[in-house]
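RETRY 2/3 - previous attempt timed out on the joint model. Re-submitting the same 230-residue input unchanged.
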Amino acid sequence: MTSNVHLVANLKMNAVKPLLSQYQELPDVSMDLLVPYPYLIYAQELLRDTSIIVGAQNMSVHEQGAYTGQVSGAILNDIGVRTVMIGHQEVSDSLEERREKLVLASRLGMRIIYCVGTQGDQLSELDEQIDCLTGSEEVLVAYEPASAIGSGVCADYELIKTQVAAIRKRLAASFSGKSEPIKVMYGGSVNNKNCLEIVKKSNVDGLLVGGVSLNFELMLEVIRLCKQYS
Ligand SMILES: O=C[C@H](O)COP(=O)(O)O
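RETRY 2/3 succeeded.
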């Protein structure tokens, strides 16, 4: 089931072993599934006959060495994980850390889901975050306003549309040499009730789903609805 609406599920910090077996029931759904580090190898093995891409939710700003408890891009690379999310609001990276992580991930040839977001409606925050990209990354951008994350209420459709349009404009101006435009997704309290409205009214290329991706039945509905829209 290939949808024009790209779906990314972020399972955040939850114990998800039984849930991963449910995702295994989706052999032909193309989407990204971002799992906590300890599940990466298990999830890759479990989902190897599906079209689901297993990715990491973060990576260290350091290349290697004495950084207990951290996971570097090189480690992800070593275990065959090619996709990594960078810049999620819950990670609270500074602009410098964003830049460093993007460079490291890009150098390793990783595919990056890059989160940008605002605390309010300040477009300058988005610009600064977008400007951390070098243009050589393989990247999908996810716009996530802080107030919408985990709140149960997604951002106003018009606001999403405006911000996403501004992000596209900035990306196009900065990286005009790209053969294909960078995909821009929305994240923040996406659910089965609002997913279609968001894609219809806000002109996004995809959705980054957090809490709802932990409920397989609801996520299945999001997947079906997005497929119908394509
Ligand atoms: O990574 C996912 C986003 O932070 C959205 O999370 P949420 O759907 O629980 O609001």
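Residues 157-174 form the longest helix (18 residues). Closing ticket.
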